[in-house]
Amino acid sequence: MRCFFFSLASILVGSACVLLFASGKTPKTDSKVDFEKEIAPLIVEHCIRCHNPGNEKGELSLDSIQALKEKAYLSPGKPGESYLLDVIRVSSKSGKAEMPKEGKPLSDAEFSLFSRWIKQGAEWPAQLKLQEKSKADLSWWSLQPLAQYEPPALKNMPKIWQQNAIDRFVYARLQEKNLVPSPRATKRELIRRATYNLTGLPPTPEEVAAFESDTAPNAYEKLIDRLLDSPRYGEHWGRHWLDVVRFGESNGFERNVIIDNAWPFRDYVIQSFNDDKPFDQMVLEHLAGDVIGKGDSKVEVGTTFLVCGPYDNVGNQDPVQAAQIRANTIDDMIRTTGEAFLGLTVGCSRCHNHKFDPVKQQDYYALYATFSGVFHGSRVLATKADQQERAEKIKPLNARKAELQKKKSQLQSTIHARAEKKAAEYEKLWVRESVKRTGVEDTFSPISAKFVRLTSEGLDTNPAAKTGYRIDEFEVWTAEETSRNVALAKQGGTAKGANSRVAGDFSGAYDVNLTIDGKIGACWIAGSPDLVIEFKQPETINRVVFSSDRSGAAMSNYKATFLADYKLEVSTDGKVWQEVASSKDRKPVNANHRRKRFYVSEVTPGEQKQISEWDTEIRQIGRELAAIPALPAWWVGNHRQVNGPFHVFVGGNPQRKGEHVVPASMSTLSKVTKGYQLDEKSPHGERRLALARWLVAKENPLTPRVLANRLWHYHFGTGIVSTPSDFGYMGTRPTHPELLDWLAVRLQENGWRLKAIHKLIMLSQTYQQTSTFRAEAARIDSDTRYLWRFPPRRLSGEEIRDTLLSVSGKLNLKMGGPGFRLYQYLQDNVATYVPLEKFGPETYRRAVYHQNARAARLDLLTDFDCPDNAFAAPRRNSTTTPLQALTLMNHQFTLDLSRFLADRLQRDVGTEHMDRQIDRAFRLLYARPPVPQEQLAARKLISANGLNAFCRAMINSNELIYLD
Fold it and tell me: What region holds the F5/8 type C domain (predicted)?
């Protein structure tokens, strides 16, 4: 059933009625009350904010008449029996009413109107649902069509500021604010600014010298062209976009498991920027690359956008919780899409209509229906031809492997059948109880030993496995009247055995020493079959006790794996071993172990030889199969058809189904764009493609506005709208709205390509101004929002790290492929990221190629405000903390690079020329020579403390990490 929502027009009409009452012009008391024009506006104004399906204060919703009747607030035709009138009536004593809790109470005229409405039967149209008004409506500035503005032409505008349309817009605003622009920056400032801005790296001394000596009128333009053509451009600007789309390479939440095959999306983004791919094409590929580029991995990889955010993969078996987790997963896609492309916080409409922007809850769930077929995970991306070629290589190998496995299985079945006939004979040998996790005890004749070795021959959970078992305590007792546990660490015992997990500071977790600490509880998890205990001195022993769960607290825990078959050996020298006990005379722990023992006892040497030969050939086939390259399986998500019906979730709760919805465009832009509406059974890919096409439609003003603002933001440090992913009521207003629209139109006219817009911005006088501070201008515009100078900024964490590697000569410019790690990754059920303490050459790539796991602390990068990509980061924070200084001064990475920088200086200019070393350092780090005072201070520092100390001081300077 179609539902009609209360319109703005009717609110305005109703408000006019309220004003009419306030003026004393009350209507006739016997006239018919018009609910839609007279009562509904009062409910919307005074009540609906606290009483709606997403915020039911007092468990009462006033979106329809149903709850008023059910809760006995209303008796149609009987005002005296209607509790509603009691709670809104103003007390003659206090002058207050019980409701509304906040705001002014209803006037006498308004109260009288409610009373008359109830007396007349309390008619409320069945299809009319009331909704809270948002702060902004469809007339909000960002929702209006793009305007074709002409750049201002002012008579007193300097000629040089008239040549670029951007400058004309900026100069006009400066004049309005009684501000004047700053002079042009020096060539040294310009090349450093432009090089960092486009590539995120410092210019080399040779590039600076060449630019400063180039007297051609277009020298600066040539510089911009060279930088835009550099592959470093895509690496730097691709990082900006990865921030916006919350790209991360672990799934987050409590498990936070690494994702090793998401990196192709990072490479795709970098290549797209380097290729100057039209942005509208990127939008189509991000949302529907699997539809428009099916079979083309270079296009399909774009859909990683949908699934590169955090998601909860715990796998809750409770259907209610599972539905909530699924709703949270799709919410991440909706929020990111709305904020990245439209600059609208669409996610705020999950539980109710947006309180600030004209985004309805129905809009949110139309997007929910659109993304309902997207699921996180990997998928093989290959053409049919590639798949067929690989299948033809694999088929004969798999056929031969299956043949061998069949023969092996048949022979083994024969052996098992023979063994079953002798079952009673074999079972006579099993005289002891089976192994128990709570404790195993073996006694034997006293024997002298300095070493005891426990060897696994099968686990209780898998007869074929020999590693992964747990030991919480291992005891070796002496053969004397007062027996001693000589395995104890405090008695001098030591334990050796491969841990399942080794991790620097975390080496105590599951460590082999837990087996002899005298404490029951924490376990060693075996990384190899053997556990070896060495005593302080040779001892005469006769008993061994070991367990994995001595207390019995974890008996039901399947993961508390223990031995099922084993042997115990002793040695006096650790080389020659003698078996003293085993599990051969114990009963098997389960049917699988019983079957294994029968087989081992019954198989003949000839049969074992034949099986070994088959196993050898099977392993060889396995190697040949492994040598055939696998088809790429990338983290691009899985897509499957999910048909309706789709509903609004009342209050955001998947268990409370509300109004029916279908995949459709948002009503927010209904006045300026041509919308779409699809059937709930439409192909899932077509839903996303329709959304993508609507986002980049020529009539949609938000996508180009938001994109133009992002470009401005990354060039000047702050956007024309300073909240780049929020163009709504809670965002900021544009400082230069006409310029923003002019840039957005240029983007569309330029085919959505970005490089030309970069060049246009950077060739402007606005961009080329010096950053010199002027107190009189700052008193008017302290944040430099109107650009009376170029706003200086600190380098980002990635820029600082890349700069240190670059100036020290260690930066590896290898592009693409799997990323490097600045942490050691550990995983059991959950993941742990242990920061590295030593850094090898494999970590000297650009920071954009770091495998960017969520909640992983990365020292320098984290300290300098690289965001945790659990959320999108459309703008970076820039904090100042003690940790930043400590990291640059004392971290092993910066200490290494100080030494590398010193080595480079000596290579570049020799070991005997201190002044040349100083000059080279200043040109490498600051793109300028030292002044005399700096030269003198540097000489003194080097003479007193050495070249390494000088390089360390240079790395810790503000001039290195700030851009003017």
Answer: 507-596
